Amino acid sequence: MRISGVAGGTSVETSGLVNTGFESPEPEVALPLTLVEKLRLYPPPEGAVIYEYTAFGGVKVKVTLVPKSLWIQVVGKGSKRKVRATAAISEAEDEVLISDNLASALGIVPEDPRRGMWRFRWEGLKKLRTSARPEHWR
Fold first, then answer.
1. Could you tell me which residues come within 8 angstroms of residue 57 by beta carbon, excluding any fewer than 6 positions away?
2. d(CA 89, CA 9)
3. Are strands 49-54 and 97-98 parallel, antiparallel or unpaired?
4. For residues 94 and 109, is the Cβ–Cβ distance under 8 A?
């Protein structure tokens, strides 16, 4: 996926994990601090808000939200959408996490999560794609 700042500047290509348990009211992408620094969103710009998320097992995690600050696009043949998304900056994450809402907006349909198989909503069931290798930002 390609992540670009709405205000221009830096763009980064990396893998992202679709996490349907990461529910959000609008398209959101959780980003590790190291990646956020590359995108020049750290320190957080004016308008950023600190929010408390409940993670797996009820663990509370503080996240800095930068509303509608990014453009997200799946890189590759068949990609048709570029979606504006909110950055969720987390010191606890080391990889990019795609919220349920962002996955839906991008047209991503997980078909076999264990094997990393997916497709775009507008493609037939026979057009399965293999996920990219995870990229960890430490």
1. none
2. 18
3. unpaired
4. no
Using CA atoms, how far apart are residues 59 and 86, in angstroms rounded to an integer? Answer: 22
Do the beta carbons of residue 26 and residue 86 sit within 8 Å?
yes
Contact 60, 53 (CB under 8 A): yes
Q: Where are the domains of the chain?
A: 2-130
**Domain 2-130 carries which CATH code?**
2.40.70
Q: What is the per-residue pLDDT across 101-137, written as a single tens digit (0 to 9) for each?
A: 999 999 999 999 999 999 999 998 889 999 999 999 9
Q: pLDDT tens digits, residue range 2-52? A: 999 998 778 999 999 999 999 999 999 999 999 999 999 989 999 999 999
Question: Who's near 93: CB < 8 A, 6+ residues apart?
Answer: 30, 31, 32
